[in-house]
Amino acid sequence: MNMHARIAAMGAIVNERERQDDLKARGEFAHTPADEIPASEAAVILGEEVGEVNRAILEHGADSPQLADELVQVAAVALAWVEGIYARRAPAAVAVE
Fold first, then answer.
1. Domain ranges in the chain?
2. Per-residue pLDDT tens digits for 77-91
3. Which of 56, 77, 90, 93 is within CB 3.0–4.6 Å of 66 for a Cys-Cys bond?
4. Which DSSP category does 35 fall into?
5. Dihedrals φ, ψ of 86, to 5°?
6. Assessment of whether the complete model's pTM goes beyond 0.70
């Protein structure tokens, strides 16, 4: 395991998650999966990002910076969805492991 790579990846995901919230605040996104939206809508958002991962592989290759960027966006969208689920639960029901 490369701890430096893990820390860099987590930082990139958190930065992207913050960027998503900034875009929403500026009106460029109507919502994120962190908001109270139907799960089907959150799944569409996540699926669109996964489609961009597939395109990055086909157009740029498996080790490309473009692929890494798209994977960060997938992880950030998934994180937003989990944040929304946790935010709607009672605080005691959210386990921190």
1. 3-93
2. 999 999 999 998 867
3. 56
4. S
5. -65, -40
6. yes
